[in-house]
Amino acid sequence: MSVAALKTPEPELLDPAQLASELAELARKHRDSELRTAVSQHLKARLIAAKKEAERLLLQDRHGRGCAERLCEMHDAIIRAVYDFTREHLYPSENQSDAERMAIVATGGYGRGLMAPFSDIDLLFLLPYKQTAWGEQIAESILYCLWDMGLTVGHATRSIDECVRQAKADMTIRTGLLEARYILGNKTLFDELQTRFQKDVVQGTGPDFVEAKLQEREERHRRGGQSRYLVEPNVKEGKGGLRDLHALFWIAKYVYQVGETEQLVQKGVFDRTEYRIFRRCEDFLWSVRCHIHFVAGRAEERLSFDIQREIAVRLGYTEHPGQQDVERFMKHYFLMAKDVGDLTAILCAHLEDRQAKPQPMLNRLVARIRPRAIRTLRESDDFVVDKNRIMAAHADVFQRDPVNLIRMFRLAQKHNLAFHPDTMRLITRSLKLIDSDLRDSVEANKLFVEILTSEEAEIVLRRMNEGGVLGKFIPDFGRVVAMMQFNMYHHYTVDEHLLRCIGILAAMERGDQPELGLANELVKSIQPEHRRVLFVALFLHDIAKGRPEDHSIAGAKVARRLGPRFGLNAGATDLLAWLIQEHLTMSTIAQSRDLSDRKTIENFAAVVQSLERLKLLTILTTADIRAVGPGVWNSWKAQLLRTLYYETEPVLTGGFSEVNRQQRVDASQQEFRINLKDWPSEAVEAYIVRQYPAYWLKVDLEAKIAHARFMRAADVAQKKLATRVAIDKSRGVTELIVLAPDHPRLLSIIAGACAAGGANIVDAQIYTTTDGLALDTITITREFPEDHDEERRATRIADTIEKALAGEMRLPEVVAKRAAGRGRIRAFALEPTVLIQNSWSNRYTVIEVTGLDRPGLLYELTATLSKLNLNIASAHVATFGERAVDVFYVTDLMGAKIAAPQRQAAIKRALLHLFERKAD
């Protein structure tokens, strides 16, 4: 007797016989008018209790698929109980006619026999012909009971002919019926549907179904962000999620006529190892999804920051040095998502062999070329090309020459070839050949650097990463594969971010992303020998993330070790290490320092030391910010980097500059004149005089035009106090432009009014005009998806700002009522720091405050500085996800720096107290 036969079957969480007995007892106790409500409430209570038990079992055994099966069986038991109760007590039929036959069928996800705690239920009431009065009563009674229980039920009532006809016309209905599962009723009807579906719908339509499902998958990925490495992934719909596994099985079931995944091994699609990977991925993803539903108490599919840590704890993850428990959990998640992608690639290759899918290419953006028969490559006899895919010519091709593990990717890159899954499988089995000898091989490293610095580098590096080669060939990179950073700033895992950086640098060289600004121009002017250094620096700049040591310093050490291996001489290696150690410096200074302060520029120039370094750092910084995620890079940041570059250039060149400061101011003003032709020339000149030189260098043209029109409208209306709302779709934020008489507490009042209006400030640009007005642009997080809703909200906040500046409201009291923080922010812990520096400016003391962002934080900081009798000359507000970095240039009331240690300590205590009070 087998072990499986000896295993004790798991008890059902809802026993059908017991449910039937309980409902019969309710029928004896309640009148007809009360019975339906009593039944639905009783079943609802039983289902809630059963779900709690299912959650307990999931926490105990951590088997996600088992939990999904239990939940499905529970709902089956409920539906059977309701059906039997309805037939026996509500609509009994002694002698059913042939037309009154009915089968109740689960379709879609419910038909698969797996469901999450709060998933929808899809039911098909299957009839032999048209609907009868009895059948309609039965279906309605079941549906109303399920709805009264709070369940979300999708349903259809169709005959077999209707099912077949609609499945032919609609791919969604066809997919739902593909997973149809008999629950109860007339089994003959269900069997007839299955037979007709296979014969009239499935037969001969495999290629059409495959193409439709793959297109649907591509569109779903496009909507979700195209990457499986998003740090807040959608477990159901995201790339590498459950829907991809479902699509894989739908296609397999449709084309190969299999009922279970294990049968794909018999068909030769998967080997045993790959089948085990499929089951492991499925079980893990179902565990995560079920836990998300249980924690959220609803049908939530996104693994958001505010629940990631709790899910990690539930799954048993613990902290390691340099990595939090939640980061280890998410790394495991992304590795599983990668495995799902690999399984999909394997299946697609088999479909191509069956001619059920279009032919592949390395780069889908390249025009299609006609596939040729198997051919050889002139560079190597070890590889051949089959249907535009590179494949090993012999089974021992990597064993005989391990350099082929790198060479194959270079050949694919040169000839725009996709990778044959059988060869990728062979690579996976050959990873043990990547040892110290191969890593030190001059030829292998030369080939790798050629890959890294070629046009299609991002695509090929990603395939090397997915095949496991990249992490084995460069072990330091292997440490950051699938590593997420638990913060709201970075959208991707570390390895995905690094690969995207390479793609962006290639885009700069092509010049096809004009929004990257100055970097597009600089990349053409760097010295040829530094191009390779730049690519390597971008590839390595975050490679030391997840270590206890600062990743910039640790990364520089890695670079000094890898530079010679990649063929860099001593000077190039020093430059590489410097770029990595300073890769955050330019971004930090541009976004949080006063660029019109001479000391800021001198200090930055002392770090950079040469014009070539400045160029390289500008390019690296641009690519780094752009690759963080959608909406992070914008014209404001581009303008700040441009300003910092051109302010620093003459310092590095001994006063000589290709475009000096005054020339740049003049050029900016001339550009402004050209784009404001509808104004009289005297009005244009009068406006130009109102703005200081720093304004013309720091603000992009579009904002300058908007500011000018806004200020002119205020002048016409004879208003010294005015506001304007602008929706920035590209960044997903809202801008509030404020014009008001300048005074020391202006920023504090604006920040307080935003807090009173429930707005969270993520950026602030502050300028003073020559006639004593302040022109401030306050950027707040967006609340509503529709522009008209967001505009109404922003207008209310702008009105609040005007009232506050006019002295019509008491800000401290109003802000206090808005003091509660937001859930997403509460998911994070961040140690606040206050840095007070007198060496960053010749005229001002610079106070840098870093801490966990929250609504009203800027108001509290500025109000505290005012209470400390400090004048704020300028403020630089930036938000990096949940981390606020606010920098204030201040003096005392006499206009002097804050030099006394006791005074500095008091300022520091007062500012830190704001974070401690909130934490309490």
Kindly describe this structure:
This is Bifunctional uridylyltransferase/uridylyl-removing enzyme. Residues 1-373 are annotated as: Uridylyltransferase. This protein is of the alpha+beta class and 920 residues long. The protein has 5 domains: 12-202, Beta Polymerase, domain 2; 208-353, Four Helix Bundle (Hemerythrin (Met), subunit A) (Up-down Bundle), CATH 1.20.120.330; 371-473, Hydrophobic Seed Protein (Orthogonal Bundle); 484-658, no CATH class; 720-919, Alpha-Beta Plaits (2-Layer Sandwich). The chain is built from 42 helices and 16 strands. Strands 9-10-12-11-15-16-14-13 form an 8-stranded antiparallel beta sheet, with helices on both faces. A hairpin with a 4-residue loop joins strand 9 and strand 10. Helix 4 packs across helix 13, helix 26 packs parallel to helix 31 (611-626) and helix 37 packs across helix 38.
Mean pLDDT: 86
The total of beta strands comes to 16
Report the sheet-strand fraction. Answer: 5-15%
Helicity, in percent? 55-70%
Give the overall shape.
globular
With strands numbered from the N-terminus, the spatial order across the biggest sheet is 9-10-12-11-15-16-14-13
Distance, first to last CA: 63 Å
What is the CATH domain class of the largest domain? Alpha Beta
CATH architecture of the largest domain: 2-Layer Sandwich
CA-based gyration radius: 33 Å
Pfam families: ACT (PF01842), GlnD_UR_UTase (PF08335), HD (PF01966), NTP_transf_2 (PF01909)
Protein name: Bifunctional uridylyltransferase/uridylyl-removing enzyme
Keywords: Hydrolase, Magnesium, Multifunctional enzyme, Nucleotidyltransferase, Repeat, Transferase
Region (Uridylyltransferase): 1-373
